[in-house]
UniProtKB/TrEMBL annotation:
Residues 17-379 form the Beta-lactamase-related domain. It comes from the Bacteria. This is Beta-lactamase family protein. It comes from Nitratireductor mangrovi.
Length: 400
């Protein structure tokens, strides 16, 4: 029986644990950390191990966040917009001259020299709404010249983060034609990496330093950043991917590989590491209209803009967007926004995103709910894996 004023049904919370535990017991994931917060009440599940045969999972285990980095980068950009150092609809050329004078492919299948001039300059709004004109071309195996060119240049979206520094990344991207006119088509990923570089150049700081000073420190996000210091390395989980040839999980990234050292490129699209408590603080800040525990990060107006769909119906249904947005979501600034309730958790207005390294984080203003699932199994496709859908089913069925 639920207690009056409670956030969750105590007799239903075990359903959430049972649903998640099945994925650990079956070996689908080595372990996980899941947290849901509502009305000041936190429910947290810590299951399994940081690696198969490794140390037990901890509440403060550190996970590679992947694309749940995107909302954080958008929030960082909006801090600069609020200070007048950036404007959403101004050309980014003064800070990103590599993007000036763009050429655009005549069609997605065109050769790299079959171009027309861009209709207008690229803006910050284009970057945050993923309408830069370059991004994931959802044709597999790759067949278009622009897909091959992006891969050869080291700027193609994928599970491997870019290995170029900011200037080299922009030089490589700037040497390519756009696949679509600025602002016209939703293409996943690259816009948020470019936004991260824009933030660094406009602020005069590295992206990581800016985020740490303006968001992570005020919000108490002590374990979030672009690498894991040596003293915290024992908390970094091992990342696995499915080997399609054998159907078994194999190591994709272990704690001793990339993330224990500062990266060459701080990816605003997918480079952060974080913990459940840290990221939940960020979500709660957005859920509260830009402040947490008396520390204001953004205005309510900025949060409202970030969490409002910015796409046209045609853009949401585009050939490179529909697989991600699934017909029930739009895209605000750096994150998805639910538009239609076609499942338990798809409450219109719910906002957040998933990460390809096994993470899912959304907040629901109507229910006053924030939740995050952290696993270390990479996604097999843009479709959510059963761990995600079971987590969100379990979270919503437990709401009082």
């Amino acid at each position: 029986m639920a207690v009056a004023g409670a956030a969750f049904h105590p007799e239903r919370l075990p359903h959430l644990r049972d649903m998640l535990a099945r994925h650990v017991e079956s070996g689908f994931v080595p372990g996980l950390v899941a947290a849901i917060w509502r009305k000041g009440e936190l429910h947290l599940e810590t299951l399994g191990h940081q690696a198969f045969g490794g140390a037990p999972m901890r509440r403060d285990s550190i996970f590679r966040g992947a694309s749940i980095t995107k909302p954080v980068t958008a929030a960082a950009a909006m801090i600069l917009v609020e200070e007048g150092r950036l404007r959403l609809d101004d050309p980014v050329d003064p800070f990103l001259p590599e993007l000036s004078g763009r050429k655009v492919l005549r069609s997605i299948a065109s050769g790299l020299d079959d171009t027309v001039p861009a209709n207008r300059p690229i803006t910050l709004r284009d970057l945050l709404t993923q309408r830069l004109g370059l991004g994931a071309i959802m044709v597999w195996p790759p067949q278009h010249p622009i897909q091959h060119a992006m891969a050869e240049a080291g700027v193609a979206p994928g599970f491997e983060l870019p290995a170029l520094d900011n200037d080299a990344y922009m030089a490589a991207l700037g040497a390519l034609p756009l696949a679509a006119q600025p602002g016209e088509e939703w293409l996943y990923n690259n816009g948020l990496d470019v936004a991260g570089i824009l933030i660094a150049r406009a602020s005069g700081q590295s992206l990581g330093d800016f985020m740490r000073e303006r968001m992570f420190a005020p919000l108490g996000m002590k374990d979030t950043g672009f690498f894991v210091p040596a003293a915290k390395r024992d908390r970094l989980v091992t990342l696995y991917r499915n080997d399609h040839a054998t159907g078994r999980l194999i190591v994709h990234d272990d704690p001793g590989s990339r993330f224990p050292r500062p990266p060459v490129f701080e990816s605003g699209a997918g480079g952060l590491v974080t913990t459940a408590d840290d990221y939940l603080a960020f979500q709660r800040m957005l859920l509260a209209g830009g402040s947490l525990d008396g520390k204001r990060i953004l205005s309510r107006a900025s949060v409202a803009l970030m969490t409002t769909d910015q796409l046209s119906p045609a853009q949401k249904a585009g050939p490179h967007a529909a697989m991600f947005l699934n017909g029930n979501s739009g895209w605000g600034l750096g994150m998805a926004v639910a538009l239609a309730r076609d499942n338990l958790w798809m409450n219109p207005g719910r906002f957040g995103w998933d990460g390809g390294y096994g993470t899912s984080a959304y907040a629901d203003p109507t229910e006053g709910l924030a939740g995050i699932l952290l696993t270390q199994r990479m996604m097999d496709s843009p479709a959510p894996p059963p761990t995600y859908t079971d987590f969100w089913t379990g979270a919503y069925q437990a709401i009082v």
